[in-house]
Structure formats: C-alpha cells, structure tokens
Amino acid sequence: MSQKTAIITGGSRGLGRDMAVNLAKDGVNIIFSYHRNEAKANEVISEVVAMGQKVVAFQFDANDFKSGQAFLKKATEYLQQENGNPNFDFLINNAGTGTYNMVADTSEEQFDEMMNVHLKSVYFLTQAALPYINDGGRIVNISSGLARFSLPGMSAYAIMKGAIEVFTRFLAKELGSRNIAVNTIAPGAIATDFAGGSNKQEDKQAIISSITALGRVGEAEDIGGTVAFLCSDRAGWINGQRIEVSGGMLV
C-alpha cells in the first residue's frame, strides 16, 4: 500500500513541527510550509528524514492568500514528480500568528492581518486543495480555546478562529459524499513563540496553571498527537467536530 501524504501549513516551529513529527511517526510523508525561517524548516526536514519518511518544505506567506495558491502548486508538482500523481491525503491548516490589542486599540491593518492569515488564506488554500485531496482523506483546521472563552486583547484573532469552526462544519457537510472528514482542534494556552511568546512568561504561566484542570500551561508536544489521531483510521467516524486540547482550561 502506498504511503499517505500530509500537507501542513506553518510546519517549521511550535505546533506545526510537532504535527509533522507525529504524523511522520505514523508513517506519513510530509509537505509543510514555512514563512521566513528556512533554518528551522531544515531542522524539521532532518527530523522527518531520520524517521524514514519523505519530506519537503516550501515558503508560504499566510497574510497573502495568493501565496497559498503558489505553495499548493509547488506541493502538487512535487507530488506529481515523486509519485506520478499530484494528490495527497491530509490537509492541516495550522499557519498563524497573533496580535494582542484591546478592541478600542485594534487598527484596521491588524484586523485585516488576522482575517487574511486565519480565515481568508485558510478558506482559499482549502478551496484550491479540494481537487487534490484523495477521497477518504482528512482536513484538520486549527482554532483556539479563545473561540469558547474570552480573554481581553485577543478579539480580532478569536473572531477569525470562531469563523474557522463554522467553516469546518460546512466543509464536513459538503465533503461527506467524498468520505473526507473535516474537524477542528482548538488548543488552549501553549508555551510557544506565538503572540510574542507571552505564554512562556512565569507570571502568565502561573495564571494559566491556576485555571487549567491539569494544572499547567500547554506545550507544543501536547497538540501534534491529536492531529495524527484525527488523520488515522481510528478516528474515521469523527467528523464536523471541535476538539479542544487545553488540559481542561476554564472548564
């Protein structure tokens, strides 16, 4: 049986890196995007190659949805060359960044960036990918715990993540005839470089730990396994769902 292939946006660091590693552990070949940090992308490539899987990375700027079309074109051309077929099995829409501003202080530019990165590029990259996703494949979109609970300063980001959850349900309905399952995972607070790395600060970690049932801040390594599970045969009957991966934050 031929190996399956996953395309992951934003796979060079943090959550995306852990998704790539966990999928590779399951024997999946990896294509991922990076924004600027080619050195970090090469580190992930080395990790995946060491597991015996094929892997390649291409640049993608999520703030420009047309960049997604170029990224997908490179990915499908690579697959055509490697496999004689441009199709793949799993699409993980992970690329993202954050902005911290109160509603009163959010500029149109900041709002537009959140919309472009987290909603418009996801919508149109997914649209462009649909002809190439094998029937029976999976799409995993990344939302946020902030689409369920509200913390000051993250409104523009959280609005777009709420929209992604609605998008997921519509995709699941429209792609059901192709046996493609579409789900969302919603990470809680994770100690990565996201939004300036504020979740790595000791005072903020103490607050997060106090409102999380499992008593700590999340780590990137807490997320990738869930994505790999959703792409496995074990999760085949999960569809159109939002799965929060937050350790029980604000339950």
General description of the model:
With 251 residues, this protein is α/β, with parallel strands linked by helices. It has one domain: Rossmann fold. Helices cover 41% and strands 17% of the residues. It has a 7-stranded parallel beta sheet, with helices on both faces. Helix 1 links the parallel strand 1 and strand 2. The longest helix is centred in the middle third of the chain and has 22 residues.
Write the layout of secondary structure elements.
Layout: E1 5-8, H1 14-25, E2 29-34, H2 38-50, E3 55-59, H3 65-83, E4 88-93, H4 108-129, E5 133-142, H5 155-175, E6 181-187, H6 202-210, H7 224-230, E7 242-245
Parallel strand pairs: 1-2, 1-4, 2-3, 4-5, 5-6, 6-7
Helix pairs in contact: 1-7, 3-4, 4-5
Short structural description:
By secondary structure, this protein is an alpha/beta fold. The protein has helices at 14-25, 38-50, 65-83, 108-129, 155-175, 202-210, 224-230; strands at 5-8, 29-34, 55-59, 88-93, 133-142, 181-187, 242-245. It has a single domain (5-245), classed as Rossmann fold, CATH 3.40.50.
